[in-house]
Each structure stands twice: as C-alpha cells, then as structure tokens.
Amino acid sequence: MSTTDQTTPSPGTGPAANEQTRGGLKKVVAASMAGTVVEWYEFFLFATASTLVFGPLFFVDTGNPLDGIIKAFLVYAVGFIARPLGGIVFGHYGDKYGRKHLLQVAIVLVGATTFLMGCLPTFHQVGYLAPALLVFLRFAQGFAVGGEWGGAVLLVAEHSPNKERGFWASWPQAAVPLGNLLATVVLLVLSRTLSDEQFLSWGWRVGFWLSVVIVAVGYYIRTHVTDAAIFKETQQEIIEAKGAAYGVAEVFRRYPRGVFGAMGLRFAENILYYIVVTFSITYLSTQLKMNTSNILLLLLVGHVVHAIVVPLVGRLSDKAGRRPVYATGAALGIVWAFAAFPLFNTRNEWIILGTIVVGLVIHAFMYAGQPAIMAEMFPTRMRYSGVSLGYQVTSIIAGSLAPIIATTLLRQFDSWVPISIYISIACLITLFAVITLRETRGISLQSVDDADRRRLDEERAAHHGA
C-alpha cells in the first residue's frame, strides 16, 4: 500500500475526485462533532449542576456552601475515574471492531444515564440513597464519555490528509466547548425564566431530560459514516492473524513513551480548562457574590470564542508545528494563573469576561493539536487504546481533582495564590513533556504503521533465529 494518506487523491484523479474526498471528510467531521457535542453537553451539564444545585439537593447542609460544593465535586470526579476504564474497554474493542460501532454505543449509554439523573430523588426525599444513585449514574456516564473521545477524534484523524490533520482533527475538540455552550445556554435560560425555588425544585432536571432529543440526533448522524481505509486494512490483518496484538497491554509494552508522553501533554491542559469553566463559577459566586445567571452568561461568551479559536489553532499546528504551538499554550498558562484572580477581584464584568476568554484561548493552544499529536504517536492497530489511555487516565489526577483541589485551597488559605501555584506547576510538567516530544507535523499514519510492522518482523526474525 502507498504511504499516501487515505483521503489524499492519487495522481490523475482530478479536482472532482478531490472535492468528493473533501466532502466525505466533512461528513466524517460532522458525524464526529454531532456525537461529541451530545456527550459533552451532558458531561458539562453535570459539572455546572455540581456547583449550582447538587450540593444543597443531594448532601447534608453543614452551613458552609463550600462543603456541599466539595462533596458534589467529589461525585463529579467519579466520572473522571470511570473514564479510563471506558477508554480501555472501548479502545480495545474499537481497535478490533471499528471506531463507528463503539461510538454509537457510547452515545446511547451517556444519553440514558443523563436522562436518569434528571429523575433522581433528592437527599430530603430518600436520604443517602440519593447521592448513592448519583454516584452510580455518574460512573456510567464517565465510562461512556471515556470511550467517546478516542473514537471521535480518530474517526477524523484517520480520514485526514497528512498536511491538514491538525486542522481537521481539531474540529471534534471544538465540539467540546459547543457541548459546554449548549449546557450553559440551557441552564442560563432556566435560571433566568424560573425563580430560585423553581430552579432548585424541578427546573434543573429539564436540562438532563433534554438529552434524549439531542442523543437521537447525534446517533442518527453517526449511522451515515464509515471507518477509514487505513483502519479497515489493519483490521483485516488482525482477522487474518497476520498482524500483531492490540489493546492496553500491548500499547504499554510497545509504546510506553507514547502513553506517558500523552499523559504529560494532557496534564496542564486538563487542569487549566476545569479551573476556567468549573472552578471559576465557584470563585465568582462564593467569593465575589456574583449572580449565577451573569456568571453563566460570561461563560457562554467564552465558550463561543473557544469553539471558534480551536480550529484556527489546529490549522496553526499544521503550519508552525505541533511542539511550538503546544509549548506556547503551556507557557502562557503560567502567566494566566497569576493574572486571572486579581483580574476577577476587580468585579468588573468586562474584565472578568476578558480573563475567561483569554484563559480559554490559551487552553486552545494546547487542546487543538492533541488529536493529531496523539494519533501520530501510535500505529493503527492500537491507536484507539493508546490515545484513550493517555487522554483519560490523566483526567483522574488532573481535571477531576482540579476543582476539588482549588476549592480546598481556597477554603484552607482564603487566598488565590496557592491555586495559581498549583496551575503553574501543572504547566511546567506539560512544558517538560513538550520538550521531550518528537515533532510529527505532516507525518503519514501509514508510515507509522510500516515502522511498526518492520519492528515486529525484526522481532519475529530474531525469535526464530534464536
């Protein structure tokens, strides 16, 4: 097989074939984004609800609102703990049976669990059974989301031209702020049209119930795409027992540097994002006493800008390289960490909006190129497992704990400085990971597979020779 990427027209096919190929790629991008918007709408709906309603509704009132928020964030973290397990299971079977089929399973599972969350009784109605059920559903939701990301981005990355992989594969990343945007819009409308008593009583449930409609749309769109040719070839090799093994154990044995490198890249990006979009709600509402709907409106604008910037940065990573773009984001994250909270403390909503937007733009410099970078680290036979593992395991010690650590530091020291130090340390870890990274801009995924096959052939030859 040629090392030419599957979506790149072969010589002589002409502009018509090129346009047809580009049209097919756009269809894949749309299918990937549709499902990803759904998945993250539901995941971030839970995040926002953790700050606004889960604390008082599902836990004992201690008199300090931060205590309830911390407990809600601990349940929120359960989803992150489940995500690596979902990544392992979905990655294993996604490498064997295909990205498309596993993505359809993921979207149905996350939709069902989210709808059921909207039906849960509160602590005042059933006592400790309420948080127990919330934990169970959150785990199932996190399991599904854990399998979603790897399949969604690989569906696009494996269809993309070599020189434009950063741009096209960044579109599913843009779907994340769009999902967050949708969740914010729903909660904003509900909080502005209902009284506080109505919102806490039943209004918050509407956002969870709406997941049924959104899931149906996403599932339908995903039925109209197919896996990339490069995956089908590798799948056939596995079926015919000509290829090597796949799955988590194999990726750790063969490509441990890729897994740990992906974790390092993910660390600061994941922490920064949840500080900006989740902990900022806590800080602005509890410390500055800002109105909830005003905070959500500021975040709404931030999500719009974020969704627009992500593909632009993806394009930049194709032009300037993966490493310099990512390193810029990590370095600027340190600056933002120490500037953000003094700017929040001005209480000027325009300044606060600018601070949130800048934080999300900085995040985009790390986030946009992740699918391309991670896809280029692993061969096709274990790519789903590799990227899911590197991406999702990090979320346990990064994004899941970030709001908890930040809220605890705020409660303990009554100061933003320890939080800024925490963010900066994370950025330094990611900068180190970037420095050790090999530049892969424009590389052919077929060449990655060919190198993997040569390595296996050499090992088999050495084994037989022995």
UniProtKB/TrEMBL annotation:
<dbReference type="InterPro" id="IPR020846">
    <property type="entry name" value="MFS_dom"/>
</dbReference>
<feature type="region of interest" description="Disordered">
    <location>
        <begin position="1"/>
        <end position="21"/>
    </location>
</feature>
<feature type="compositionally biased region" description="Polar residues">
    <location>
        <begin position="1"/>
        <end position="11"/>
    </location>
</feature>
<feature type="transmembrane region" description="Helical">
    <location>
        <begin position="135"/>
        <end position="157"/>
    </location>
</feature>
<feature type="transmembrane region" description="Helical">
    <location>
        <begin position="350"/>
        <end position="368"/>
    </location>
</feature>
<dbReference type="InterPro" id="IPR005829">
    <property type="entry name" value="Sugar_transporter_CS"/>
</dbReference>
<feature type="transmembrane region" description="Helical">
    <location>
        <begin position="72"/>
        <end position="90"/>
    </location>
</feature>
<keyword id="KW-0472">Membrane</keyword>
<dbReference type="InterPro" id="IPR036259">
    <property type="entry name" value="MFS_trans_sf"/>
</dbReference>
<feature type="transmembrane region" description="Helical">
    <location>
        <begin position="271"/>
        <end position="288"/>
    </location>
</feature>
<keyword id="KW-1133">Transmembrane helix</keyword>
<dbReference type="InterPro" id="IPR011701">
    <property type="entry name" value="MFS"/>
</dbReference>
<dbReference type="GO" id="GO:0022857">
    <property type="term" value="F:transmembrane transporter activity"/>
</dbReference>
<dbReference type="Pfam" id="PF07690">
    <property type="entry name" value="MFS_1"/>
</dbReference>
<keyword id="KW-0813">Transport</keyword>
<keyword id="KW-1003">Cell membrane</keyword>
<feature type="transmembrane region" description="Helical">
    <location>
        <begin position="325"/>
        <end position="344"/>
    </location>
</feature>
<feature type="transmembrane region" description="Helical">
    <location>
        <begin position="416"/>
        <end position="437"/>
    </location>
</feature>
<feature type="transmembrane region" description="Helical">
    <location>
        <begin position="294"/>
        <end position="313"/>
    </location>
</feature>
<keyword id="KW-0812">Transmembrane</keyword>
<feature type="transmembrane region" description="Helical">
    <location>
        <begin position="40"/>
        <end position="60"/>
    </location>
</feature>
<feature type="domain" description="Major facilitator superfamily (MFS) profile">
    <location>
        <begin position="28"/>
        <end position="441"/>
    </location>
</feature>
<feature type="transmembrane region" description="Helical">
    <location>
        <begin position="102"/>
        <end position="123"/>
    </location>
</feature>
<feature type="transmembrane region" description="Helical">
    <location>
        <begin position="389"/>
        <end position="410"/>
    </location>
</feature>
<feature type="transmembrane region" description="Helical">
    <location>
        <begin position="202"/>
        <end position="221"/>
    </location>
</feature>
<protein>
    <submittedName>
        <fullName>MFS transporter</fullName>
    </submittedName>
</protein>
<dbReference type="GO" id="GO:0005886">
    <property type="term" value="C:plasma membrane"/>
</dbReference>
<feature type="transmembrane region" description="Helical">
    <location>
        <begin position="169"/>
        <end position="190"/>
    </location>
</feature>
